[in-house]
Predict the 3D structure of the following.
Amino acid sequence: LDSGTGREVQRMLQSLSPQSIAQLLESSPPRIRQVLWKLIDREVEGEVLQELADDVKAQILSIMDTEEMVAIMEGLNADDIADILQQLPERVMAEVLSAMSESDRQRVQSVLAYDEETAGGLMDTDTVSVRPNLTLDVVLRYLRRHEKLPKSTDNLFVVSRQDRFIGLLPLTRLLTADPSVTVREIMTTDVEPIPADMPDYEVAQLFAKYDWITAPVVDENNRLLGRITIDDVVDVIREDADHSLMSLAGLDEEEDTFAPIKRTAPRRSIWLGINLLTALLASWVINLFQGTIDKVVALAVLMPIVASMGGVAGSQTLTVIIRGMALGQVGRSNLRWLLSREIGTGALNGILWSSVMGGIAALWFGDLRIAWIIIAAMAINLVTAAFAGTLLPVALRALRIDPALAGGVVLTTVTDVVGFLSFLGLATWFFA
Amino acid sequence: LDSGTGREVQRMLQSLSPQSIAQLLESSPPRIRQVLWKLIDREVEGEVLQELADDVKAQILSIMDTEEMVAIMEGLNADDIADILQQLPERVMAEVLSAMSESDRQRVQSVLAYDEETAGGLMDTDTVSVRPNLTLDVVLRYLRRHEKLPKSTDNLFVVSRQDRFIGLLPLTRLLTADPSVTVREIMTTDVEPIPADMPDYEVAQLFAKYDWITAPVVDENNRLLGRITIDDVVDVIREDADHSLMSLAGLDEEEDTFAPIKRTAPRRSIWLGINLLTALLASWVINLFQGTIDKVVALAVLMPIVASMGGVAGSQTLTVIIRGMALGQVGRSNLRWLLSREIGTGALNGILWSSVMGGIAALWFGDLRIAWIIIAAMAINLVTAAFAGTLLPVALRALRIDPALAGGVVLTTVTDVVGFLSFLGLATWFFA
């Protein structure tokens, strides 16, 4: 890419879909992004922008002025415009809003009124609704007066005169039913509309559970506000799934893969600082046993093994529980069962691998006492890891701390401290 | 739940949707699952079964006989039946297939012919197709002869007389266009059909990129075989996203949260065994420096800090790169940029935190030599971690080893070995 002249690149970009251009931008370092952005056709800029991940979107917006932004947002859905505006500083957002047409502003503000991470923040406002007393024939004629229907429309929304949600009229039913029947006779009423303040992850669970394509969003009076479409839900699902992975390493799931050093370094630095504190705690424990180590240096050689095995076993348990919690499977009713399963697994594997390690230690250092010490310490640490890995995420959630973010650090601290304490403690007692 | 009598539970289950029953089963330990399953109404058993995660599905199937299975599969889509059959042992699968009606068997076998993790394995076969030369009026009358259209239908497929895929006719366009025009005049032809052998993760990327609801699947001669719907793609997206999280802890993304000990313990045990080997390698490195540790016991106290900080920094880099690879963003063209960003970040944070740690070490042990040694060793290890975290996943992928599965272990081995080696090596040189 770097070697192509501007015009060649421009021609290449013209042959790509907005989605492909967005992916290309996301896969490029920041400086190349800005060059590429300038070469994109004006007409597709809006569509490309709306496809970008939030972090990248913010970066592109930061090099635009208000006029450009307003021009770009023309023709986008209210929810996509709201998404873009939320990346802007308060002041710029107000400027852009006031430069928009009255009707656009109203549509966008109705979405902006809701938190970004709720159903209201996910919805768009272009719904097609019909009254229950119409015949299908009338509905069909009404639809034909539209130039086109909103993207992904699979249901019409049936509403009362006061715009209250009554039911759904699937297009597939509209197309197969007798045109002389009324909407009321064939509409589906067993779908609960989504309240605008429902958190987005609950919306995603509903979509995944019921295989919805679109779903109606209502206010507290059951008045139809808009609709949520599956493509926005897929983004939520993907981000939620990413959340546990990224958080366990102290990262933000929305972080741009190509964020520059000045953005990457500080966030990671905090995480390293927290880890340094916990590592110091482990060192402090070791320090208590300086005398014993001085007597038997082999202990220093073997002690990281005890800590490391506990850490690995604990992180396996932790990952299973955190994922189970994200899937809504782990609750008070089955926690006891999970805990006993984990402790059973930890004990079994603890006996197996500590025996193996005991054998190795006996052969390596020719000292049966060291073998027995490491067997006991490893078994203790693996069972502790099972306990901590199961109960920690549940306790953190009860304290309203994100288990995916804090779980890993706290867990390693526990397995390190217990590992060193049991191994060196037992050794001190044996060799005293 | 345990305390309710059978009849009460049965009444409760009758009030739940098949999706909710499936979630309840997934959230229950194995023994309770079997009790619950027996209380479910016959008519919804098939629907519940198809909603279950693979592992749970296999468990429920293992307590059924062939007759029950055939009865349950009646009325399910070909792709869902294929999903269920693939959970069965070869012999049982053949039995069930031969007990099915001829037409059902053919439909199912057309899906079974493809690998589970390809477009062919994801598709179902109930498509509605039309010829390009028909007028919309004829299409509308044709549709009205159907009792109902397949779920999630958003497009009709336009095919030639030889069943070759030509284009899409969106229902929304069918409803708004003039009924006297022909299909050919308003169909969309800019959508590439999906080849049946495309891997499922590529299918998922296409759906996410183009916001599709359904997409046509064709064979190598462009003949229409079936369609893929977004609900099955959402499952693929969710599993793919889970894959990195679970693999980094040596777990299987399809593992049932409530798998019994006899299933959990062996798999985790292998992972612990591999970790024991790498921990022994680190111990062997420490062992080389027994003499130095014997002289300066403070080294044993501080050495885990160097290894641990490298491990954390490395896993941050590794996670970012693995996620970037899963999103298709990391390739040869931007690897050099990423590597320099990671090394820059590692060096910056290395200087910051190693200085802090140097200060702490100087105060703690009152020995400036130890301070300088830990500063140098930590900085070396953090930069090594950046190197290894970036290049390891790329190298593993080139070797066709799953980076998410192997990356974490190899990385920790590197940061442990380099951490101990640099810290104790420098110390030996300083204190010699």
